[in-house]
User: What shape does this take?
Amino acid sequence: MAETRSGADGALASKAPTTSDGYRLGRRPGLDGLRGIAVLLVLWNHTALPYSGTAGTVGVVAFFVLSGFLITRLLLEEWDRRAGVSLSRFYVRRALRLGPAMVVYLVLTAAVAVRYGEPLSQVLWAGLYLTNIVRSLGEFITLTPHTWSLAMEEQFYLVWPLLLLLLLSRLRLDRRALAALLVVAIAASLAYRYSLIAAGADLQRLHNDPLVVAMSLLAGCLLASTIASPRLQILGGTAFVVALAAILGSGIAEKSVATYSVMVPAITLASVVAVAVVARDGRKPAWIEALLTWGPLSYLGRISYGLYLYHYTVYYVVKHEVRGPDTEQILVRLALELGLSLLVAALSYHVVETWFLKKKDDDRWTSVASRSAATPTPS
Assistant: This one.
C-alpha cells in the first residue's frame, strides 16, 4: 500500500529541528518490517488456502494505521517547521509515489480483463479510486476487489490534509485538542459501524463503507498526535509480542459480520500498539529492531505498494491457467502466485517506481507547488 517516509532512528531524528511536542519522525526502518508483515498477510489471504480467511483484512487494517500515522505526522511536522502546509506539494509527492505504478497496473489489468472477459468497468473503478464506493453499494468485483483499500487511502489523502490544515490554522488546535477531536471521530465511526450491524448490513458494506473503515486511519492519526507522550514509554517487548500475536492470529478467523464487529477494532488497537512501540523515542528491545529490519522482511516492506497492487491480477491469471484440486497443482499454483507477484513488484519498484521516488524528494519537482500553496498561520 501507499508508502511514505518511514524509518528512523532516534539518533537521526534528534538532530532535526525541534517540533512542538519534541518528537521527529525521521527514519524508522522498523516500520518497513511492519509493512512487510502486513503485505504477507494480504498475499496469504488471497491464496484462498485454509486458515487464510481474514488475513487480508488484518493486513489492510495494519496498513491503514501506518498510513494514518505517517501522513499525519509528516503534516504536523511540516506545520511546526513552516507554520503552514503546502497542500499542492503534498499532492504532487503523493502522485509521484502512487501514480506511475498504478498506470502500469491499470494497463496490465485491462489486458487481463479483455483476455478473460471481465468488465472493463472494474478497471475504471480502480483507476478512479472508487472501488470501495461501488462495492459498498453492492457491486460484485472479481478482478480488482483489492483496490478498495487503495481507494480508501486515496480518499483519505484528498480529505485529511485539507481538514487537518483547517483545524490547525483556523481553529488553532494544539496536539491535545487534536487528539481529543480524533477520539470523538473514532467513536463516531465505531458507532456508525455498530448501527449498520444492528440494521442488518452485510459484510461487503461493513468492509467497504468509507465511514466505517475510517476508524483505522483515524487511529493512526491519533497516534501521530500523541506519539511524544511519556505514557507510551511503558510499551515495550511484551506489548509488541501481544500485539503481533493478535495481528497474526486473527488472520485465521472465518469471515462473518460477527467476526468483523469485534476483530477490526481489536486489530486496529493491536496495530496502534505495534506501530507505537516501533516509532516511539527511547530504548526498546533490540530484538524488535533486529526482526523488523531483517533484510527480506524489510525489502518486502519497501516493495509492498507494488506487491499489493499487482498481486491480485497475477493470482487471477494463475488461478485460471493452473486448475485442479490435487496437492501438486495447489503447490504449483501457490509457487507461481507468490513468485510471479514478487517478480512483478520488484521490477515495478526498480524500473518504474524508484525513478519517480527520487523525483518525489527533489525540490526542483515540488518547489513551485510548495511556494504557491504554503498556507501560513492566520494572523
User: Anything to note?
Assistant: The CA atoms of residues 315 and 337 lie 5 Å apart.
